[in-house]
């Protein structure tokens, strides 16, 4: 919701997201300035469109807002065309193709607002348009509801990462699970397990029918758990193999995105690595705990990031982090924390899949219900 005490929301292209007007990060103008910019006043059922082609629908809560010069308003004749119906056409595959082929420019594509009038829109009776528009509006609201659940869970996880692990100059976290009271013990990465160096892969070694599986460093950035791909080697030449509960570090990364993984859900018994080194934890160390602590805790991640070498492409080597310290509780508390975050990640993934499923349902309906 807009804060009326700030003035009138003044929208830019960045406020158009997935067919909606997003107030976050918006600028505000005075009522006096708003009254002078008459052509930019929004009314219910308007569609706001940017020169880049992004769209936003105006509902009751957006009434009276204003837009900058990079945006335009599509205001329909309600006797002929319902705005909610037009919006769904424009975000459908057919509508997007119509807008895409009217874009100009090479490196930076833009959509001349004047050409939109030439887009042919298949319409039905206004009464049916209303029904279709309301159906998709309700579906959009359901998608938004699940997206907010994802965002809420991600915020909970971020807070837990800050409170379930010790912060700077502390030897215990702010929040503890019941029956755990001992101080955490300082240790070094070189003492938590055995280091396994990875090999170097060349494109000549790639083979989609290869039988030797490999984990590439680029696969470690988006997942804690992953599926090992069946594309790798004609020959088994990389040496060290990783197994479940190993902790994997990409050797090429960015300073602000140190990434590592404990393959706790790895389906395969073993795999080789390229551009990756691994630490195989000792029996008193839970690899997933180390992963969550190092990857998810801002303070701990920055301790390792300062050891990265290079500018455009930085590299993280075992030798540069092996003497960095990490605070570790007893194994029982490690497992408790690891189990908590694993369940939280699964819940986040479940909600994300619901969002994707609803989006796929909407896409299928758009293709079937619009000519």
UniProtKB/TrEMBL annotation:
Pfam families, per the entry: Methylase_S
Is the Disulfide bond keyword given for this protein? no
The main enzyme category here is hydrolase
Name the domain of life this protein comes from: Bacteria
Annotated transmembrane regions? none
**Domain Type I restriction modification DNA specificity residues, every copy:** 7-154, 181-359
EC no. given is 3.1.21.-
Arranged from A to Z, the UniProt key words for this protein are:
Aminotransferase, DNA-binding, Endonuclease, Hydrolase, Nuclease, Restriction system, Transferase
**GO molecular function terms attached to this record:** endonuclease activity; hydrolase activity; transaminase activity
- The answer on whether this UniProt entry bears the keyword tRNA processing reads no
**Family designation:** Belongs to the type-I restriction system S methylase family.
Q: What is this protein called?
A: Restriction endonuclease subunit S
Instruction: Please name the source species.
Output: Campylobacter vicugnae
């Amino acid at each position: 919701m807009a804060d009326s005490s700030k003035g009138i929301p003044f929208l830019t292209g960045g406020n158009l997201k997935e067919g909606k007007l997003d107030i976050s990060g918006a600028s505000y103008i005075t009522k006096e300035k708003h009254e002078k910019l008459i052509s930019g006043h929004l009314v219910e059922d308007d569609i706001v469109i940017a020169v880049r082609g992004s769209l936003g629908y105006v509902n009751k809560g957006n009434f009276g807002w204003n837009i900058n010069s990079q945006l335009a308003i599509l205001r329909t004749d309600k006797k002929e065309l319902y705005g909610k119906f037009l919006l769904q056409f424009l975000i459908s595959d057919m509508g997007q193709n119509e807008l895409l082929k009217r874009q100009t420019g090479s490196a930076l594509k833009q959509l001349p607002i004047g050409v939109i009038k030439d887009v042919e829109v298949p319409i039905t009776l206004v009464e049916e348009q209303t029904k279709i528009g309301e159906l998709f509006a309700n579906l959009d609201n359901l998608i938004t509801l699940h997206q907010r659940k994802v965002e809420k869970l991600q915020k909970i996880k971020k807070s837990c990462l800050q409170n379930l692990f010790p912060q700077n100059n502390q030897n215990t976290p702010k929040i503890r699970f019941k029956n755990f009271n001992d101080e955490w013990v300082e240790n070094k990465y070189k003492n938590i397990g055995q280091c396994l160096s990875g090999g170097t892969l060349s494109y000549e070694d790639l083979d989609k029918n290869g039988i030797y599986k490999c984990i590439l460093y680029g696969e470690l950035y988006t997942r804690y758990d992953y599926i090992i791909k069946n594309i790798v080697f004609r020959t088994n030449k990389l040496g060290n193999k990783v197994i479940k509960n190993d902790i994997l570090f990409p050797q090429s990364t960015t300073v602000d995105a140190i990434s590592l993984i404990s393959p706790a859900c790895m389906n395969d018994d073993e795999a080789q690595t390229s551009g990756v080194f691994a630490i195989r934890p000792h029996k008193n160390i839970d690899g997933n705990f180390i992963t969550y602590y190092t990857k998810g805790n801002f303070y701990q991640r920055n301790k390792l990031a300062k050891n990265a070498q290079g500018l455009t492409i930085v590299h993280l080597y075992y030798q540069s982090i092996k003497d960095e310290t990490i605070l570790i509780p007893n194994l029982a508390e490690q497992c408790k924390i690891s189990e908590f975050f694993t369940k939280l990640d699964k819940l986040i993934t479940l909600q994300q899949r619901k969002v994707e499923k609803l989006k796929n349902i909407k896409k299928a309906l758009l293709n079937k219900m619009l000519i």
